[in-house]
Amino acid sequence: MDTSLFLAKFWGWYLIIFFFILSLNPKRIKQIFNDLKDEKFLIVSSFMAILVGLLNILFHNIWEPNWKFIITIIGWISIFLGLFLFVFPKRTVALLELLNIKLVQVIYTLLFFTGLFLLNVAYNIIPI
Fold first, then answer.
1. pLDDT per position as a tens digit, 72-102
2. Where are the domains of the chain?
């Protein structure tokens, strides 16, 4: 299987599942922000973000002006978010806390549509 299609399926399903978890239990959003104040959670989260982003970039660093660019950007955002959480934890958490619940809902709704788009590309449900 092509790496791009595999990652489109992975990120598509991940983003859809993430959306439904947060939609069915919105208290999880506040819990995530509260958990970021715990150093152990913060370190594990930052390492996971760096690991996932690095693997994504090592296998898929394609800068073409098409759907593959979305997968590359997800990897780079993951790396930078993980690095910022690890190197500048208090500043990054403070910046993330500036996001209110409404903005977080807008962001994960956009991620839902991104997930739908990636799944459509991967499974060719509606030809583009």
1. 999 999 999 999 999 998 888 888 777 765 6
2. 3-123
